[in-house]
Amino acid sequence: MPMGKGDTISCFAIKDIRPGEEITFAYFGEFDCLLSHTRHKLLHFVCKCKACLPDNVGEISTDSTPNRNSILTFREVTEDNWRAVANLSLKPGQTGNLAPNVWSLCEAHYSEDAWVRAIYADETLVGMLMMAIWDPDEAYYIWRFMIDGRYQGLGYGRRGVEFAIAHIRQHNPRAKTLGVMSTPPEGKKSENPLKNVKPEDSPHRFYERLGFKEIAPPDEDGEIMMSIDL
Ligand SMILES: CC(C)(COP(=O)(O)OP(=O)(O)OC[C@H]1O[C@@H](n2cnc3c(N)ncnc32)[C@H](O)[C@@H]1OP(=O)(O)O)[C@@H](O)C(=O)NCCC(=O)NCCS
After folding, report:
1. How many CA atoms lie within 13 A of 184 on its CB side?
2. Of 13, 110, 150, 174, which is most buried with the most CB atoms under 10 A?
């Protein structure tokens, strides 16, 4: 029987099965957290059992669009999902805060000290987190971080940063700080209209709310270095 990630499981009948006899299968393990149509596709049959009805509680929670209770997972970027990560988009007015994802993925691919993950809310791709590990015993940096405009305001940004901190603490307890370059709170003006950022579109207050503090004056691009102790 095929499983979701290319594996198979084998089931053995304890008695002979006659042609046409109905057999049942319990949706345990990996299957019970899949949507019914995904489950049916994997198993090569359509089922109308209670667990597959649209008003089943599990079905509602997994079918629903990303919400505050969705489970966030941080997955590697692979040949299967990199295009989708590259196609994530921000709200209009936010593009001046960071490079396009396709650029970031390219940079990550060729930088040994980059660590990048695709962020999923349940099974929906919602964002991207890219860190730089230039001096692992000293400081980590959020190099690029974005939540797609459709899924902002659901707490994923906060949980993304909390995940980054937990990840660093787990992998390098000696690291002292996590830094980030942010557009200043007053936004920024540029000759390129796509790089203009209004105050309300700057992530500065977002990082401030999470405990990051300014540690250096604005650089030549007007970006401010912020940092939080680990
Ligand atoms: C910044 C960003 C990652 C926040 O993601 P998000 O999922 O919308 O944030 P959350 O829903 O987790 O918000 C967490 C808190 O920050 C606040 N917040 C979020 N964005 C804010 C902003 N631009 N200004 C002020 N507060 C903000 C929220 O109101 C919330 O406050 P609360 O905890 O008191 O309710 C997202 O807006 C984004 O991708 N922006 C464009 C890209 C960017 O600027 N990236 C950072 C540069 S590396």
Report:
1. 13
2. 150
> pTM for the complete prediction?
0.77
Q: Where are the domains of the chain?
A: 1-63, 72-229
Strand 213-214 to 224-229 pairing = antiparallel
Pocket-forming residues, ligand 1, beta carbon under 6 Å? 90, 94, 97-98, 142, 144-147, 152-158, 180, 203, 205-206, 209
Residue closest via CA to ligand 1's atom 14 equals 158
pLDDT per residue as tens digits for the range 135-162 = 888 899 999 999 999 999 999 999 999 9
Q: Which strands, in side-by-side order, build the sheet including 213-214?
A: 72-76, 114-121, 124-135, 139-147, 177-182, 224-229, 213-214
> Under CATH, which number does the domain 72-229 receive?
3.40.630.30
Query: Closest by alpha carbon to 194, among 120, 100, 53, 118?
Result: 100
